[in-house]
Amino acid sequence: MTKTTSNKPEINEQQAAPNVCHTTQWYEGPTIDEHTLHDDLTRHFYYTLGRDKVGESRLYLYHALALTIRDRLIARCRETRLKNEKHNRKQVAYLSLEFLMGRSLNNAILNLDLEDKVRCALNEFCTALEDVEQAEHDAGLGNGGLGRLAACFLDSCATLGLPVTGYGIRYEYGMFNQEIDNGYQVEQPDNWLREECPWETKAPDYSRRVKFFGHVEVHEDLKGRQHRRWVNTQDVLAVPFDIPVPGYNNDIVNTLRLWKSEATDEFDLSEFNAGSYSEAVAKKNLAEQITMVLYPNDASESGKELRLRQQYFLSSASLQDILAQWIESHGQDFIGFTDQHVFQLNDTHPSIAVAELMRLLIDEHGLSWDKAWSITSTTMAYTNHTLLPEALEKWSVRLFERLLPRLLEIIYEINARFLLQVAQRWPGDVDKTRQMSIIEEGDEPQIRMAYLAIIGSYSVNGVAALHTKLLTNGLFNDFYQLSPQKFNNKTNGVTPRRWLHHCNPALSDLITRTIGEQWVNDFSQIQKLANYADDEKLQVQWQQVKFDNKVKLAELVQERCGVEFDPNMMFDVQVKRIHEYKRQLLNILHVIYRYERIRNCDTATMVPRCILLGGKAAPGYDMAKQIIKLISNVADTINNDPLAKPYLRVAFLPNYNVTAMETICPATELSEQISTAGKEASGTGNMKFMMNGALTIGTLDGANIEIRDAVGEENFFLFGARSEELDEIFRNHNPSRIIEATPALQEVMQLLTSGHFNLFEPGIFQSIIDAITSPTDPWLTAHDFASYIHAQDEVDRCYQDSARWAAMSILNTAASGPFSSDRTILEYATNIWQLQCNATPSLA
Ligand SMILES: *Cc1c(COP(=O)(O)O)cnc(C)c1O
């Protein structure tokens, strides 16, 4: 990609935007030499923030530095927007209920190439950049993989220079903080805005009104045409907060627009006049509830009214925002809108946008149904993230009728017209009509949001090859048969800026010294490393970097868990949301198996390991919380047994988040990706580990399959049932018989049932034991155990040959090119969004 300098003649020439009074001086934004940086830092510290004592708090220094950098970002953001407008470029709105951004300071410094200058500017304050960075609170506005994907996508879109705006919710409270008390998860609120977020700018002049409740009236116009009016509504104001999203070294800055709900200014006059002034004002607090808190459920739907309000709030505000921009330049003429706009729906969460765009175009802008539908169904695109039935969102018709009555009418109409198409395609097939209807019949009729999303979109994509195959062959097969052209795959990716360059600077330097620096701008070049996999000198340096990173992770584990990790031992890691399908339980059974071997003095071939687990459980997910308790108890028992110390250390790291992952993935040697086949749509943690040279032990699931294909089967530890074998396995599944027939598993289960890990807490693990032994265990824990243990033994064998392990590690990083989100986004851009990419690096 070409690197441009900070002054863009194109923009200087541009006709001064009308109604904008400015001197070119401030309009261009402050320069980024170290003197102005230092001056601005000082000014923000002493004046914007009103501090006087240098060194009194890293927090204020962080704020001052963030504001200094934000000034530079805002200038580039404005230029980016003007340039896109000038060239009339097609735009994408990426709608997502979650953006798991993590910290922004280091990312901005990296992308603007400011590190040396910032260090200089900080000199006078006698504080290291690293210390200032520690003061930043993670922006944790997401649960896990889905939200982090949205964040990686924003980074890649800006880096590729694509006009993509993220639209989300500015939750007052993000993902809860997890504490561990006596082995149990305790949730603490994440008040991330307490010290304010210096990156955001409030833009109240772009506020939008969002309607709720009320009812629909029909009236006729002079020509006798019927119109419907949604009246008597209770309105909420959506106020935007903009966060800049810088591209890597290209002076492009896109925007993440997050909506906050606020009360409108009207008072309920009757209450007001009745002397209930305070009550009338207090009612307005209800409006602010909408964006108060992120729902902490990963991959499951909770059915709560407030959640539906969040979804509609985001969808309506964002669509209004785009339509208002359009009307400003085109008036009420929507011809050509489809060529200029795409709405990408991140899962079904914002899928009410399909009906809302219809409502806005018909009710507010006077379009006919057919015109509105032709626009909607050619601008909406939907990404599916899961096959788990509990995650497929459904909302009761009754709730819709009360909360969003006009939207319900529109959904009925969309459904009626769609079912005519179904009847044409499958004449007389009543079952088909019932199966494909947006409305699920029953005592409590439900709206199937995924069906609404598919019917209303021109593109439906899965997030890894296997996942897309399972969607088209299984879950959405009827829809696939009706419109096969809609369906496509976009395998997920992660941004190599955050997940290699920033989080693993030592490895990045080593890579650059080995293959040159082009890989930073064009990540497909990383494959050149493969030529050096057997280079002994590189192997030694590679292992030294890994060792140093292990020392840092060991410090974190010591501080957070009080467990001593020895960097001379293998670091074996599983961090991700706690979920039965991800099978942390299988991991812990393997830990117990090792412990049992140690107790039996069967350690001759055993490689000493430090095993780290981490992740949050949804607060209402009992089994997941039980699993955390089991991990904690097993860890305690093992860590307190002097016999185990030379061979095994186990820790559960509390509060796994983006920032923790930045220390974890560079230090990991073995990445545990052990979900039940067919359940993990893609996974992205697997990609971060691979990029940083970890080897994967995993099932043939999600993107693991593509990872293994890329790196070669000899560099991947495969185990477990395959998705195509599942039907056959479940036909006569008998975990108890498997346990009896597998001595290793039998011993593990005996130790577990004997209460060895819960001596003073009798019976607490009974539900876990029952789950493993249940003939209907959907997660196949017992079934996959022997195969898992076998693969783990193979891991030990490979690790003992350290040169071989180093080569395998280098080959993993070398093969991680396709798992850059730049590759993913380039596919979205060319294939779904039909955007022209002017700066296109060649990608794997
Ligand atoms: C990458 C990431 C995830 C996703 O991990 P998976 O292993 O793909 O489930 C979840 N949480 C955080 C904080 C992450 O960085």
TrEMBL record:
UniProt cross-references to CDD domains, sorted A to Z: GT35_Glycogen_Phosphorylase
Gene3D superfamilies: Glycogen Phosphorylase B
Ubl conjugation found in the keyword field: no
Class of this enzyme: transferase
Domain of life: Bacteria
Transferase found in the keyword field: yes
UniProt-listed Enzyme Commission number(s): 2.4.1.1
Cofactor: pyridoxal 5'-phosphate
InterPro entries: Glycg_phsphrylas, Glyco_trans_35, Pyridoxal_P_attach_site
UniProt keywords, alphabetically: Carbohydrate metabolism, Glycosyltransferase, Pyridoxal phosphate, Transferase
Catalytic activity line of the entry: [(1->4)-alpha-D-glucosyl](n) + phosphate = [(1->4)-alpha-D-glucosyl](n-1) + alpha-D-glucose 1-phosphate
Similarity section: Belongs to the glycogen phosphorylase family.
Protein name: Alpha-1,4 glucan phosphorylase
Gene symbol of the encoding locus: glgP
